[in-house]
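Example record used in the benchmark description.
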Amino acid sequence: MIYSSNVLHISPWECAEGLFKGAGHLLPPSSGLLLIYGPFAVDGVLSPESNRSFDRSLRGRDPRWGIRDVADLVRLATSNGLQLVSTHEMPANNKLLVFQKKRSSSVTK
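Model output (structure tokens):
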């Protein structure tokens, strides 16, 4: 299992790419899990207002930062042999995303 908490919104997109690429290579098929905790948009919708405000603040500090959309992470997961298996609402407008390594996959190199 790999666990990442409150990282993807305060780092460049390349960090997300590296996290999913590493998970795709390191996790065992079927049982390997990548858990990601933090604030996320869903299909382009970021709510509530406090998360939209937070996102503006992050992007103001560094334009490479910002709250990521689950759909973009699902695309990264797919290209690295993982799939989103569950999403859990958490306190303070956060989510826990659970990705699982597919049984057999072709991972991009």
